Amino acid sequence: EVVRTTLVDFIPSLHGAERRLQRGISPDELQNAVKYGTKEKLVVRQNGKVQVRYKYTFADVVYITDKSSTREITSWAKPMPFLEMSLTSRMQEQHDEARRRLALNPGIMSSHTIFIVDQSGSMRKSDVKGHRSRSTSVFWNIANNFLAPQLMAGALKAT
Questions:
Q1: What gap in Å lies between CA 113 and CA 155, rounded to an integer?
Q2: At which of 57, 77, 97 does a domain end?
Q3: What's the chain's average pLDDT?
Q4: CA dist 86 to 35, 90, 151, 152, 157, Å?
Q5: Which segments of the chain are extended strands (E)?
Q6: What is residue 7's predicted lDDT score, i.e. its pLDDT?
Q7: Does residue 2 lie within any of the structural domains?
Q8: Which of 63, 122, 133, 148 is most buried, judging by how many CB atoms fall within 10 Å of its CB?
């Protein structure tokens, strides 16, 4: 079956269609990737044979095709970036000192937060838009929605 649009034609594969469904990627996003994205030639070895593939990247969607650029192989959304925060030398010193004190006397810890994150097989599913898996979505959200605001506000301190 050939999917025809005004942008580009592509031949979906069963694997590719399943991945798009799991990852919330529409055929239009793949067609936009081919038309507007960056194209990178890949040479892969599969079953002892060298094959040419093309990797298209556009709007955080990566799309892999065969050498004709019309047969879909797979696709995924690029992971959302983590907010980078630089540590000052003072922050590093405080961290090192807190670790030293805790190693000497673990009883001085006054508060803590524990996250229990399921890592069963279902957490490997790629059905959360913008993330490679459910698991990476959870860790991204912990880092950006729980830890980052407290770090930015100065609410997390060594005891």
A1: 13
A2: 77
A3: 84
A4: 38, 11, 11, 11, 16
A5: 38-46, 49-58, 61-65, 72-77
A6: 56
A7: no
A8: 63
Mean local confidence (pLDDT), 55-73: 89
Closest CA to 52 of 73, 37, 72, 66: 66
Q: How big is the chain by its Cα radius of gyration, in Å? A: 22
Question: Do both 97 and 147 map to the same domain?
Answer: yes
Tally the C-alpha atoms within 13 A of residue 148's C-alpha that lie toward its C-beta: 12
CB 98 within 8 A of CB 46: no
Does the pLDDT at position 92 exceed 60? yes
* Residue 80 CB contacts under 8 Å (≥ 6 apart), including other chains: 130, 131, 140
Residues 55-80: b if buried by 16+ CB within 10 A, e if exposed: bbebeebbbbbeeebebbbbbbbeeb
- Model-level pTM greater than 0.70? no
Rounded Cα distance, 90 and 63, in Å: 44
Return the DSSP state at 87: P
The conformation of residue 116, written as its DSSP 8-state character, comes to -
Domain of 18, in residue numbers: 14-77
Task: Please give the average per-residue pLDDT across 29-47, as a whole number.
Answer: 89
Share of the chain above pLDDT 70, in %: 91
Q: Of 52, 77, 102, which residue constitutes the final position of a domain?
A: 77
